[in-house]
Amino acid sequence: MTRIGPLLALTLALLTLLRQDAEPAQHSTAVLLIVLAVSHWQPERIWRLRAWLLGSLLLVMLLVMASYLLPEYWLSIAHWNAWLSALPGDAYRWRPPALMTLALLLLVASLQLNLRLALGAPLLLTLSGLALLSQALIQQWATNIWVLDHAAPPSLLAAAGCLLTVQASLLIRHRREQLPGLRRPLLAGLAPGLAALLFWHQQTTLEDRRQYHASAVQSRALAADFERENADHLAAMRRFVSFWELYDAPPSDADWARQASRYHQDYRYFLNIAFILPSSEIIRVFPLAGNENALGARLFDDQPAGRPALSEALIHGREGSTGAIDLLQGVPGIIHYLPVHSRTSGEVLGATAMVVSLPALLDTLFDGIDTRAQALRLYAGEQLLGEVGSLDDRVNWRHRFSIDVGGQPLLLDALPGRSALLMQRARLPEVGLLVGLVFAYLLYLVLFAYQRLAGQHRAAHHTNQELRREVQARSILQREVEWMARHDELTELPNRRLFMETLDANAERRPLSVLICDVDHFKRINDHLGHLAGDRYLRHIAEIGRRVICEQDGLFARYGGEEFVACLPGSDTAQAKQLAERLRQAVHQADLLHHDGQRLSISIGIATQTQGALDIGQLMQVADEALYVAKAGGRNRVVSGRPLTLSDGTCDPLSTR
Ligand SMILES: Nc1nc2c(ncn2[C@@H]2O[C@H](COP(=O)(O)OP(=O)(O)OP(=O)(O)O)[C@@H](O)[C@H]2O)c(=O)[nH]1
């Protein structure tokens, strides 16, 4: 599609360009499409050509859009025409329709933006599609009272559609992974874009109707002027006739000339004012100059077209009017015949003829009318009686009015000129459309940026959470490691290290006792009941030790293997012995049996320091010796250690009491 599309668009545009009957606006649109189609190829060596083509296109289309937007009093159509005088015809007629210009402008812009999502290319393409679609739909709903051409022909719409499809497929192919995130900004941008298009359509239709009705009213006023002028000169001629009725005889030459000249002055379009005898002979005519051939003419014979009207006046004594006929003077005109009755006898003395030259009447009426604003044509039936104004560049409107001229119907056609209508035309529809589209574009950009930022924020938040979880896991691990460094995993008691640290921490405390407890014949438990049972026994002893020792604010720890130790700050030998005894008994009474049913027991050695500097090594050694004594003494007993030797060489006298 990316190769065939531009080729197809190029062909369609070329075919339109070659059509003889195409409007100038179609030619210019076709040229723009051809340049745009060529810009879709990306010649590797001459990539600058493409940038140059697109830049020029953008400039041209911005100028065209400006011509739709700028108020007439800022930059008049005459100015545009003067600048573009090199183009044949009226430059305004070369201007592509507004929606087509917009659709192409959006296509060029999205190509210039390299179809980047962050710069709004998807929205531009969608809006361009909407502009093309609405043109196709407008053609269906055409009201035929457009001032501006709103729709390009189907071939050009199809060409633009091809280029749009090419760009859309390129965008989908290259930015596929980012498309799912586009939904929200695209829909949000489309809503005001669509509203702007609808607003434009509604406003432009209203403006067309307003201009149509305004020009119809203007033309109707002209028709009314025409009828009024006709009624005025008839009324004047009736006054003229009543003067001759007072005269009661055919007028003399001098009198006729004097009276008729006044009326002729007021109504310049009277070719002449004549007096006709009942025999239809013209005996008086004013002005004589130019009407010499009329004087003496017998109208029944010489102007048969006017005979019925003249008979009305001369035979029946009523006003008669010829309608539009060819006059003796060789121009189209209307003759009104008004009978002149004798004041005394009432007989018809003759008739006054008022010969109206239609071209002169039209000149009088249309004097001062802007012939660029409208062309006027006057018909009698199918016969064209006169016209003013050029018929070039007219909109497709015709206001037709029937005018009663002395009982004869004439038709007045008013054909409004396009450039005058453009001058009076409001720019609101196009301005509204542009403002709406700019708003839609900005909304897209804001939402797109917001969505992208929100995505980045979510990713950062996710990473943060991961990091926090990692830190938590590591700190738990750290605590576990720290705990394990100071505790025994099997019994969960403090281990040897924590025991030593506790002793260090209580180095100043006196008295200070330690117990070393050893399970009696534990090997037998392992051997006969298995290591798992041995472990369970150790955990049970640990539980008993923790309960008993911690009650006295002491620390019960596993020293290693089946050996436990207790640190009893503030306990003298007696208190330590009492506690050790309670511990021993508690273990002995627990439900811990050897395989042969004998109760499990422990032996405990005690060492107490009541004064002097703490010597942990000696303290532990004394307790160990006491344990040895307890073992040697038959086990399941508590033995206090020997007195400790202080650093000054004296004995700790209270250490065994
Ligand atoms: N199940 C188990 N056994 C252990 C553990 N640590 C040490 N032991 C066992 O404890 C036993 C200690 O035995 P010995 O040192 O010979 O002493 P004993 O059998 O308790 O006899 P006396 O101390 O002389 O009363 C050994 O069989 C070790 O394998 C442990 O964590 N779990």
TrEMBL record:
<keyword id="KW-0812">Transmembrane</keyword>
<dbReference type="GO" id="GO:1902201">
    <property type="term" value="P:negative regulation of bacterial-type flagellum-dependent cell motility"/>
</dbReference>
<dbReference type="InterPro" id="IPR050469">
    <property type="entry name" value="Diguanylate_Cyclase"/>
</dbReference>
<dbReference type="Pfam" id="PF03924">
    <property type="entry name" value="CHASE"/>
</dbReference>
<protein>
    <recommendedName>
        <fullName>diguanylate cyclase</fullName>
        <ecNumber>2.7.7.65</ecNumber>
    </recommendedName>
</protein>
<feature type="domain" description="GGDEF">
    <location>
        <begin position="510"/>
        <end position="643"/>
    </location>
</feature>
<feature type="transmembrane region" description="Helical">
    <location>
        <begin position="91"/>
        <end position="111"/>
    </location>
</feature>
<dbReference type="InterPro" id="IPR000160">
    <property type="entry name" value="GGDEF_dom"/>
</dbReference>
<keyword id="KW-0472">Membrane</keyword>
<dbReference type="Pfam" id="PF00990">
    <property type="entry name" value="GGDEF"/>
</dbReference>
<dbReference type="GO" id="GO:0005886">
    <property type="term" value="C:plasma membrane"/>
</dbReference>
<dbReference type="InterPro" id="IPR043128">
    <property type="entry name" value="Rev_trsase/Diguanyl_cyclase"/>
</dbReference>
<keyword id="KW-1133">Transmembrane helix</keyword>
<dbReference type="GO" id="GO:0043709">
    <property type="term" value="P:cell adhesion involved in single-species biofilm formation"/>
</dbReference>
<dbReference type="InterPro" id="IPR006189">
    <property type="entry name" value="CHASE_dom"/>
</dbReference>
<dbReference type="InterPro" id="IPR029787">
    <property type="entry name" value="Nucleotide_cyclase"/>
</dbReference>
<dbReference type="GO" id="GO:0052621">
    <property type="term" value="F:diguanylate cyclase activity"/>
</dbReference>
<feature type="transmembrane region" description="Helical">
    <location>
        <begin position="123"/>
        <end position="142"/>
    </location>
</feature>
<feature type="transmembrane region" description="Helical">
    <location>
        <begin position="51"/>
        <end position="71"/>
    </location>
</feature>
<feature type="transmembrane region" description="Helical">
    <location>
        <begin position="431"/>
        <end position="450"/>
    </location>
</feature>
<feature type="domain" description="CHASE">
    <location>
        <begin position="282"/>
        <end position="378"/>
    </location>
</feature>
<feature type="transmembrane region" description="Helical">
    <location>
        <begin position="154"/>
        <end position="172"/>
    </location>
</feature>
